Amino acid sequence: MPSVLLETNKLSFAYPGQPENAPPALAEIDLRVDAGEYIALMGASGSGKTTLLKQFNALLRPTSGEVHIGGASTAEEGSLARIRSLCGMIFQNPDNQIVGATVEEDVAFALENRAVPPAEIRRRVAAALALLGITHLAGFPPHLLSGGEKQKVALAGLIAAEPRCLLLDEPTAMLDPAGQAVFVETVRRLNREQGITVIHITHFPEEAVLAGRVLVLDKGRLLKEGPPSEILTDLALLRTLGLRTTAAGELAALLREDGFPLPGGILHDQELAEQLCSYVQKI
After folding, report:
1. What is the mean pLDDT of the chain?
2. Is 2 exposed, middle or buried (0-12, 13-18, 19+ CB in 10 A)?
3. What are the angstrom distances between the C-alpha of 231 and each of 36, 40, 130, 208, 236?
4. What pTM was estimated for this model as a whole?
5. Averaged over 170-178, what is the pLDDT?
6. Beta bridge partners of 221
7. What is the pLDDT of residue 2?
8. How far apart are CA 114 and CA 261, in angstroms?
9. Whole-number Å distance between alpha carbons of 240 and 2
């Protein structure tokens, strides 16, 4: 049975100064995340996605309810350092979290703050750079790098800290399609090969479809959760929330409306192509 890494119980949160009659940013969220899961978190802007993600490394803490990470409560001051070492976070703009004069210095920054011995810092930094294929950038100033390279540097800093969970807040939003693909595949490889848990906020259904489970937030509430094949084929739900499915899913839906006998659950280009070829061979 998988071990539980993260669990919330009736989690609610309201920002300080919020009007009393305003709905909370998060409301009554019950959630369990097992170690090694890859979860996509979707919802319209303002639905509470980033607020929820920040609860998972105690950047924010509940107004009411509970959050437990690795068995420790975020309400316990003495547990915060451990919780933040377990769950590292990457934001949309890597410039907001790159602080070193060189790539190597930036990746070492968090370890130095934790007073990790110098020899161990060098080992971890070298391993993280090699894992992400950016050893050749070690001496470069980060501000000279591309957006995709900067996100890899930010990710290397987290990997060097050896987290059990990566919290990704739309990390590909500022990247071109090629950069998006490389970054997502890198994170998927870390999930597959090292068992690192991933919780990934995304507006891109092509990224969400790669997750094992999709969570949908609406107005601070966990509206629905399930495998991509269930969530991303619920076109009525997605359209109500201003979200979309994959291009293959949209095209398959349009073709069904025109009378093509395509099965449900199509989300990938290859699936759609195979079904269309099969249909053509039968006529």
Report:
1. 92
2. exposed
3. 21, 11, 36, 10, 10
4. 0.90
5. 88
6. 218
7. 61
8. 59
9. 34
44 phi/psi in degrees, rounded to 5: -65, 165
pLDDT of amino acid 263: 86
Residue 86 to residue 92: CA distance in whole angstroms: 20
Which tens digits make up the pLDDT trace of 243-265?
999 999 999 989 988 888 888 88
Joined together, the tokens standing for residue 109 give: 């920054």
CA dihedral sign, ordered 230, 232, 233, 238: positive
- Average pLDDT for 114-138: 93
Query: Which strands sit side by side in the sheet containing 72-73, from one edge to the other?
Result: 26-34, 4-13, 64-69, 72-73
For 9-45, the pLDDT digits (tens) are 999 999 998 887 888 999 999 999 999 999 999 999 9
Asked if 42 and 216 count as a contact pair (C-beta separation under 8 A), the reply is yes
Class of domain 4-245: alpha beta
Q: Residue 61 contacts by C-beta under 8 Å, 6 or more apart in sequence?
A: 13, 55, 67, 74, 75
- C-alpha pair distances (Å), 20 with each of 13, 62, 75, 159, 172: 13, 16, 23, 41, 35
Residue position matching structure tokens 């170690």: 35
Tens digit of each residue's pLDDT (9 = 90 or more) over 41-78: 999 999 999 999 999 999 999 999 999 999 999 999 99
Written in H, E and C, the secondary structure of 140-175 is: CCHHHCCHHHHHHHHHHHHHHCCCCEEEEECCCCCC
CA dihedral 57, 58, 61, 66 (to 10 degrees): 60
- What percent of the chain stands above pLDDT 90? 71
**Burial (0-12, 13-18, 19+ Cβ within 10 Å), 252:** buried
Task: Single out the residue of 179, 190, 103 nearest to residue 139, CA to CA.
Answer: 103
DSSP structure class, residue 28: E
Report d(CA 14, CA 107) in Å as an integer: 34
